[in-house]
Design brief:
By secondary structure, this protein is α/β, with parallel strands linked by helices. The protein has six helices and twelve strands. The chain has a single domain, classed as Class I glutamine amidotransferase (GATase) domain (Rossmann fold). The strands form three sheets. The protein has an eight-stranded mixed β-sheet. A two-stranded antiparallel ribbon has the order 5-9. Strands 6-8 form a two-stranded antiparallel sheet. It is globular.
Length: 205
């Protein structure tokens, strides 16, 4: 069963609705037993890094998530802040992240002469890497973003896609069975549907 982790941060209902629209049954849970039984896991997130990590710790779901994702190798997709939580930390706060992807998040600091606004809110075309499973089979991908921090990966091989802001910004990661997207697939219409379909059908392969 496709399982969306509910730890009080994010909008899991919108992901359920989009998955249902493209023909997949899913469930929202805050129970470790359901996480351990999942075929695929989605970790949504919005808001501040430290607050989200505290909610995740308080939920007592991290041991089940580690067992599912790191031991059983169940495909897991972090969405928006959920992607940043996959790294070891963020400049936004002092809390340690999950540490499943060798990366950290930093504040977006464009040159003032460029007159770019942070947070970035809006649509952007992305550049997928050749072997990025989430972006297979689509000529173009365009997603809706809202974020002030960007992930910097230690290893180029973990970068699945970028978009251009003041520089190429990592907007998707792929590390073994762990995936992340900085944007909101649930707000990105047919592009979000294609990505979620790829996650369900290709991520485990």
């Amino acid at each position: 069963m496709i399982t969306i982790v509910d730890y009080g941060v994010g909008n899991p209902g919108a992901l359920v609705n989009m998955l249902e629209f493209i023909g997949y049954e899913s469930r929202i849970t805050n129970q470790p037993s359901a996480i351990l039984e999942a075929s695929h896991l989605l970790l949504p997130g919005v808001g501040a890094f430290d607050a989200a990590m505290q909610r995740l710790r308080d939920s007592n779901l991290i041991p089940a998530l580690e067992s599912a994702a790191l031991v059983r190798k169940i495909p897991l997709l972090g969405v928006c802040l959920g992607m940043q939580l996959l790294g070891r930390g963020s400049e936004e706060g002092s809390s340690a992240g999950l540490g499943w992807v060798p990366a950290a998040s930093v504040r977006m600091r464009p040159d003032s002469a460029l007159k770019l606004k942070v947070p970035f809110m809006g649509w952007a075309d992305i550049e997928p890497m050749p072997n990025a499973k989430l972006f297979a089979g689509e000529g173009q991908f365009r997603f809706y973003f809202t974020h002030s921090y960007r992930m910097e990966c230690d290893h180029a091989g973990d970068v699945a896609a970028t978009y251009h802001f003041d520089q190429p910004v990592v907007c998707s990661v792929q590390h073994d069975n762990i995936y992340g997207v900085q944007f909101h697939p649930e707000k990105s219409h047919r592009f979000g549907m294609a990505l979620l379909r790829n996650f369900v059908e290709r991520a485990a392969g």
